[in-house]
Amino acid sequence: MKRVLLAGAALVALAATQPALAADPPYWAPPSMAAPFSWNGFYIGANGGYGWQDARPVELLTDNVLPAPNNLGQATAASRGTIGDIRAQGGFVGGQVGYNWEYGPSVLFGIESDLQFARIEGSRAGVFTNPSGTIPVSGTANFNIDWFGTVRGRVGMMADSWLLFGTAGLAYGRVGYNLSATETGGLALFQTALSASETKYGYVVGAGIEYAFTANIILKGEYQFINLGAIGATAPVTNIIGGAPTSESATLRSIDAAFHTFRLGLNLKL
User: Fold this and answer.
1) What is the CATH number that goes with domain 41-269?
2) Where residue 70 falls among pLDDT bands split at 50, 70, 90?
3) Of the four, 4, 37, 152, 192, which is 20 to 30 A from 95 by CA?
4) CB count, 10 Å around CB of 109?
């Protein structure tokens, strides 16, 4: 009898709670949303890539065009012609540091500086061709970029973890250009060695894309066009026999130290 009474009391209590449960259904909080990525602040990183130069003609000039005995090259025109085009290419590695400012929900402004050690080089060898009748002169030319860097402003469009940007600014780097040339016909009395190695300054323009894997790790891909200005060289012509100086001088016509680069980089947002 006691068990029957207890079971009845439990049923009455359960029935009394039904209206309250119906009026106040259970509540489950929605999952919290992750905060949007912020590009603001300092970052530092490393990069590596490849650089290449557009083809440039290697041209040799002399200042003596009279077919006289003291004109060791026996030229009838100032230009000895060209041995063809030179085109430097190769890899580089370096690092960068920068700062970003977000402006509104989608615009970014920034500044970045980078420095790369490079092995961008090329060579050309051949015989200078001149329709004006130069006695044949053979030569070997080399062009190289040992290191380069930039200081640039950046403007970009943000889309959460993605950034698309353009960039422009100052560029600088160490550039070398040299030529050795020797007369291979006639009396073989023409020889010259021309060389220039300079730290050059110019401009850079480019564009790129970045993606933030986490709140602190960012992958980037970037193209840059860098022009460090013209480089050439002048040197005296010497007599091969004994290396005696002559009254003639030779000039390696200037070419633009301009090249393209593509790089991949990894940044750590501080």
Assistant:
1) 2.40.160
2) very low
3) 37
4) 14
